[in-house]
Fold:
Amino acid sequence: MKSSELSGFYKLTPEKRLAVIRDLAKLTDEEVTLLETMKGLSIDQANRMAENVIGCMPLPLGLAVNFIVNGRDYVVPMATEEPSVIAAASNAAKMARVTGGFRASSMGSVMIGQIQMVNLPDMEKAKSSIIASKDKLLKIANEMDPILTSMGGGAKDLRLKPLRTVRGPMLVVELLVDCKDAMGANVVNTMCEVLAPVLEDMVQGSARLRILSNLATERLARSEVIMRKDELGEAVIEGMLDAYALALADPHRAVTHNKGIMNGITAVLTATGNDTRAVEAGAHSYAALGGRYRPLTTWEKTADGNLIGRIELPLAVGVIGGATHHPIAKISLKILGVKSASEFSCILVSVGLAQNFAALKALVSEGIQRGHMKLHARNIAMTAGATGEMIDAVAERLISEKKIRLDRARELLEALTKT
Structure:
């Protein structure tokens, strides 16, 4: 990527934006055609991906620009129907460039599979037998995916979690699997399936559930950013800190705080064919791990008065496998230019932090609705028949009058056209 700082990108027509990204990402003619015709998925392909298929529901695919993560420029594809999300992320990333962008890290690609054992005649004996046979059990699991094992991944460890439940004592056998650059649901579930009958024979109990956990605490990603006080102003910084304090104290605010974070992360996940539900579930459950639902970010002032933000959450994502083979997902990953799931996690968590910054800044200054209403007003102006510069002219008048209605847009367009 030459540079993700694409000045005036939002002012270009979709055709000109596509020409710019075609050059930057070296897209082929076929890839460009898929994007501009919005025919990324045939009915036959869709029918192989889900049941009872009758068609597809497209989402707008846009690009967040200006991102620097760990010293490298990224243009970030985002698929979302919500106004202001892409613009907010781009604006936050532009402000972050002044201090070097986002500094991010990922702890790895280990997923947790769970095998639920019930009706155990002797809990302590069962635990001892499993621990003594750990190497054997890992070997059996790894035989299910020799390719992953040859790449340095595969089942790495076993953990035991005895539980007291409303149905009596249970033992959860947790299998830790390094999935490398895949999200890993299929391989983890397959390994759990093959181990279940082996464990039943070993401990004389019954295996019930055998499935991965979406609380991927072994796949945490972190990012931090510094925003300069001379860019924000003291009043905005103080307001953002007050907004963060409210999220820290009140779960009703915290969940909306975190929803804003996921606006960005989920949009990137959708664009790249990743499992949005898995990551959303993991993020919100991680926010509640301490027994109280809390914000996924922290904000505070540095010694010199700048604003520093940090974020941490589990990200079970991949750059291979699953729906990442979707034609548009493949193009999105090509534009993004990531080479590993770990690198991808660093981008995602930085986008989430950027989104949170932008939302808090808007809330304590011009208000979150301004961006939403601006895009809504433009849509109304275009519906009324406005084109070119007339779109913004009509939209601005609608906003200033606080009459974002189709009938008023038509009146304004007629008057402006005459003048």
Remarks:
- The mean pLDDT is 94.
